[in-house]
C-alpha cells in the first residue's frame, strides 16, 4: 500500500463515527462494573453491620425482662428463658447465617452489694470459636460453665469485675447496686456479595463485633438460674452449636 492510500485510509478512519458509542461503552464498562461492585459490597457491609448490631440490642433488651414472676413479685430467670432469647437472636440473624458464622454470648454483670461487682454467669450460642469470637471475659470459673447457678453469696461466685465490662478502654458498663446488667457480645464473619477483597481494611473490617447492654427491668432473683423439671438444655459456653 502506497503512502497516499495509507493517508486516505487514515483520514477515513478518523472521520468514521458509526462505532463511537460502542467503543466508549467498551472502554468504560470495566470501570463502571468495578465501581458498581464496590458500591454494592460497601452497601451490603453497612446493612450487615446494622443487622448484627440490632441482634445485640434486641437480645440485651429481651434478656433483661424475661423470667417467671412468683407470687412474691420476684422474677426467677430460668434456663428455658435464656434458650428462648437465644433462639430469638438465632432467628433474627438467620438471613446472615449468624450462629454458623458467628458467636453470641450473654453475660450477667451483677452488684448485689455496693463495691462487689462480678460476672455471675454466661450462656452462649454459635459455632465460631477462638480469639475474637469467645467472650472477652474470663469464663474458666465454674460459675461460667458446668457449675452455674449453685452459689448464693456475691462474695463467692462469679468473676470479679470491679471496673465493669466493655470493649472500650474508657467508658465501661456497670451494674446498679442491688441489680444487674445483661451484657451481650456478638461476633460475626462477614459474608461478602462478591469478595472480601473489595472491602478496605480486610479482616479487621469483615469480622464484625457488637456489644450491647440493658439493666434488668424487674425484681430478679440473682442467686441462680433456675431449671425446674422438665429440665431445659443449658447453653454452656464450652459448647459450640448453631441451635
Q: Summarize the main sheet.
A: 5 strands, antiparallel
Gross morphology? elongated
Extended strand count: 8
Average pLDDT rating: 84
Name the helix and strand elements from N-terminus to C-terminus, one letter apiece. HHEEHHEEEEHEE
Radius of gyration: 28 Å
* Helical segment count: 5
Low-confidence stretches: 148-156
Structural class assignment? alpha+beta
Spatial strand sequence of the major β-sheet: 5-4-3-6-7
Proportion of strand residues: 15-25%
Distance between the termini: 77 Å
Proportion in helices = 25-40%
Question: Can you characterise this structure?
Answer:
- It is built from five helices and eight strands, in the order H-H-E-E-H-H-E-E-E-E-H-E-E.
- The protein has 243 residues and is α+β, with helices and mostly antiparallel strands.
- It is 33% helix and 23% strand.
- The termini are far apart.
- Strands 5-4-3-6-7 form a five-stranded antiparallel sheet. The protein has a three-stranded mixed sheet with strand order 1-2-8.
Keywords:
alpha+beta, 243 residues, three-stranded mixed sheet, five-stranded antiparallel sheet, 33% helix
Tell me the layout of helices and strands.
Blueprint: H1 3-15, H2 20-63, E1 68-69, E2 75-78, H3 79-92, H4 98-101, E3 102-113, E4 116-125, E5 159-160, E6 179-189, H5 203-206, E7 207-215, E8 220-226
Parallel strand pairs: 2-8
Antiparallel strand pairs: 1-2, 3-4, 3-6, 4-5, 6-7
Helix pairs in contact: 2-3
Amino acid at each position: 500500500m502506497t503512502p497516499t492510500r495509507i493517508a486516505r485510509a487514515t483520514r477515513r478512519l478518523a472521520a468514521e463515527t458509526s462505532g463511537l458509542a460502542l467503543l466508549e461503552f467498551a472502554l468504560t464498562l470495566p470501570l463502571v462494573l468495578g465501581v458498581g461492585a464496590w458500591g454494592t459490597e460497601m452497601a451490603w457491609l453497612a446493612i450487615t453491620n446494622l443487622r448484627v448490631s440490632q441482634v445485640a440490642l434486641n437480645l440485651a433488651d429481651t434478656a433483661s425482662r424475661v423470667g417467671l414472676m412468683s407470687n412474691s413479685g420476684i422474677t426467677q430467670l430460668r434456663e428455658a428463658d435464656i434458650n428462648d432469647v437465644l433462639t430469638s437472636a438465632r432467628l433474627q440473624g438467620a438471613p446472615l447465617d449468624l450462629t454458623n458464622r458467628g458467636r453470641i454470648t450473654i453475660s450477667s454483670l451483677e452488684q448485689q452489694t455496693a463495691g462487689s461487682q462480678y460476672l455471675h454467669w454466661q450462656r452462649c450460642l454459635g459455632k465460631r470459636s477462638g480469639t475474637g469470637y469467645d467472650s472477652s471475659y474470663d469464663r474458666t470459673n465454674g460459675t461460667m460453665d458446668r457449675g452455674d447457678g449453685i452459689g448464693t453469696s456475691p462474695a463467692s461466685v462469679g468473676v470479679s469485675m470491679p471496673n465493669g465490662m466493655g470493649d472500650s478502654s474508657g467508658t465501661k458498663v456497670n451494674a446498679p447496686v442491688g441489680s444487674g446488667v445483661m451484657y451481650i457480645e456478638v461476633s460475626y464473619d462477614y459474608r461478602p456479595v462478591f469478595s472480601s477483597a473489595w472491602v478496605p481494611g480486610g479482616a479487621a473490617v469483615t469480622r464484625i463485633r457488637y456489644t450491647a447492654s440493658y439493666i434488668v427491668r424487674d425484681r430478679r432473683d440473682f442467686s441462680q438460674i433456675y431449671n425446674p423439671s422438665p429440665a431445659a438444655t443449658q447453653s454452656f459456653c464450652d459448647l459450640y452449636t448453631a441451635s
